[in-house]
Design brief:
InterPro entries: Alpha/beta_knot_MTases, Ribosomal_eL30-like_sf, rRNA_MeTrfase_TrmH, SpoU_MeTrfase, SpoU_subst-bd, tRNA_m1G_MTases_N. The chain has helices at about 15-25, 40-50, 85-95, 110-125, 140-145, 160-170, 210, 230-250; strands at about 10-15, 30-35, 55-60, 75-80, 100-105, 130-135, 155-160, 175-180, 185, 195-200, 215-220. It has about 250 residues and is of the alpha/beta class. It has two domains: about 10-80, 60s Ribosomal Protein L30, Chain: A; about 85-250, Alpha/beta knot (3-Layer(aba) Sandwich), CATH 3.40.1280. The strands form two sheets. A seven-stranded parallel β-sheet has the order 7-6-5-10-8-11-9, sandwiched between helices. Strands 1-4-2-3 form a four-stranded mixed β-sheet.
Amino acid sequence: MNDTRGKGTGQWLYGVNSVREALRAERTVHEVYVYRERTDRIKNEIVALATRSSIRVKFVDKAFFSGFPKGHQGVAVRVSPEKVVGLEDLFSISRRKGEPPFYLIVDGVVDPGNLGAIIRTAEVGGVHGIILQKRRIASGETVAKASAGAIEYLPTVRVSNIKHAMRELREKGVTIYSAEAEAEELYWAADLTIPIALVVGSEGKGIRPTVKRYCDLMVKIPVFGKINSLNVSVATGILVYEAVRQRMSA
């Protein structure tokens, strides 16, 4: 959402969780907007967080939120644009943590709910960074809302070409995995303790064939019901936490 409600430039985030995490994270918050009729502990918490950081709070009428999507919950913030992160920054994060690289590559997941759930799972699961392709994802504001603010803590690289990014990862010694129903190797048999990037694909078509060619190994999540596939965010959770399990046991 473009900033058309006041002077200055920036990005709008809305919804309780997105606003709360933006105030807690390192993103520069310019102003906080709260529906004046809201009277609950959430309002008090958000006002307290803003006050603690000397951020101006404006109490506004219901009409202020008329241009926001549903789910704004009567709270919004105007923040600085999302920090641009490059692949080299991801490598630095892994080195700083002293852990084998652990990245997630998202190929064309456009549903905000799925992408938000993927980001939340990745952040909670300790993924070092996520790589998204520009113009093939939902807007930053929508994703922030859907991820319940987790995007504020997960380094995010937006690239013009996923395949070029994958090639660079491979040149740095990162093994690239993807999940495919036709794969022979079960996901728990793969070594996820090494430097890895997991690729997940769009809801309808999955990972594009041109992207698959850059994957080193495809693994299978077995299914036993009449439905032959899992929701992409659920599949991501299974793979991420298998990597967590292996790394904690190593």
